[in-house]
Amino acid sequence: MSSNKQRPSILDKSLSRGKSEVSITAYALLFSEMVQYSHNRVQSVSDLHNKLSELGERVGVRMVELLFVRERNYKRETKLLNVLLFVKGTLWKSLFNKEADKLDRATDDERTFYLIEKEALVNRFISVPRDKSSINCAAFMAGVIQAVLNCTGFPAKVTALWHKGTTFMIKFDDAVLIRDKQLEGR
Amino acid sequence: MRANDPKKVSGELFTLTYGSLVAQLLKDYENVDDVNRQLERMGYNIGMRLIEDFLARANPGRCYDLRDTADKIQQAFKLYLGVSPSIGSWSPGGDEFSVVMETNPMAEFVELPEHCLGLRYSNILTGVIRGACEMVQLEVMAWFIADQLKGDNMTEIRVKFVKRLEDAIPAGED
């Protein structure tokens, strides 16, 4: 074991500029293995969604750091709508090379927002058997969004639903809305 | 923003997704050897499917010897991971060679902590090579002999030809 070799410190390397690309096939096959791996270790659909969401959260945590250093010049978002626009725009563009299709607010609940993506990348290569039609592997992306919101100070719960393609239902904690209203009142 | 090539996805998304998988495996398995094994196995599954995509897309034609095979592996790294490894260090018998990467896209943003020095972080790649080759009737062994995550200058995978596989005759036929 080469334990006497100097292991490189990640902080000594310059930050990636984010222009690298891999084939979509490579990603699809990797994701497929991750879904199968998770699927073998769960008993229920909601457990599977939780596992996938957990996998996505690790990605989200790191994307926040990466994007705020690289693209936002270390300035964090303090307003609710702006952080949602960050998710719809900057985050989505970095991950999926496009903005999310639509951002809506629930009419009956001011804590709930809907981020709509007609064709979620991760679902493009997944076919769900008819008897398990509630499985939505975009739970992975929901995890990414959830981690991004939690890490930027806007705690929320995000779930992926089959609606208009894929709809991510974002439900913020009450405290977030209260604080945002106070900010506006200023 | 890069030009929208529908056949490509963000390298960072790929790297972070893979990292999340490795982190999950480290959580699920008690020891690092099991993680290494699991990564290799998942790579094997991927390789078995990847080869079909490769044959369809690159239309590479038959390999007549191991050098052809090495060439195709090099092509595949470029096609799927966007890196250009070099092939070298051929054994005198011509049955072993190295795939050498100056940058490993899977390991972007990665630092190995003290307690995981036995982890072969990118071990999924060795499985991909093994699985892909098996589907074209070639049994190979693939393993890492150098890793930049561990302080080496390059990341290097050794590939060794074991044997040609005969098509298995289905039971009941002669």
Helix content of chain B: 40-55%
Task: Please tell me what the overall shape of chain B is.
Answer: globular
Biggest pleated sheet of chain B:
4 strands, antiparallel
Secondary structure tally, helices of chain A: 5
| Total E-strand runs of chain A | 5
Low-confidence stretches of chain B: none
Separation of the first and last Cα atoms of chain A: 60 Å
Computed over alpha carbons, the radius of gyration of chain A is 18 Å
| H/E element sequence of chain B | EHHHEEHEE
Structure classification of chain A? alpha+beta
Percentage of residues in helical conformation of chain A: 40-55%
User: What portion of residues of chain B belong to β-strands?
Assistant: 15-25%
Major interchain interface with per-chain residue totals = A-B, 44 and 46 residues
Write up this protein.
Chain A: InterPro entries: NO_sig/Golgi_transp_ligand-bd, TRAPP-I_su5, TRAPP_component. Chain A: It is found in: Endoplasmic reticulum; Golgi apparatus, cis-Golgi network. Chain A: One of its GO terms (cellular component) is TRAPPIII protein complex. Chain A: This is Trafficking protein particle complex subunit 5. Chain A: Belongs to the TRAPP small subunits family. BET3 subfamily. The complex is a heterodimer of chains A (186) and B (174). By secondary structure, chain A is of the alpha+beta class. Chain A is 45% helix and 15% strand. Chain A has five helices and five strands; from the N terminus they run βαααββαββα. In chain A, a hairpin with a 3-residue loop joins β4 (156-162) and β5. In chain A, α2 (45-70) crosses α4. The radius of gyration of chain A is 18 Å and the shape is globular. The mean pLDDT of chain A is 90. Chain B is globular and about 45 Å long. The model of chain B has no long low-confidence stretch (mean pLDDT 91). Chain B has helices spanning 11-28, 32-58, 66-81, 124-135, and strands at residues 8-10, 86-88, 96-101, 138-146, 155-164. In chain B, α2 (32-58) packs across α4. In chain B, strands 2-3-5-4 form a four-stranded antiparallel β-sheet, with helices on one face. In chain B, β2 and β3 (96-101) form a beta hairpin. Helix content of chain B is 42%, strand content 18%. With 174 residues, chain B is of the alpha+beta class. The A-B interface holds A 1-3, 5-10, 16, 18-27, 29-34, 36-37, 41, 54-56, 58-59, 62-63, 66, 93-98, 121 and B 1-2, 4-14, 16-21, 23-24, 28, 42, 45-46, 49-50, 53, 79-82, 105, 108-112, 117-118, 124, 148-152.
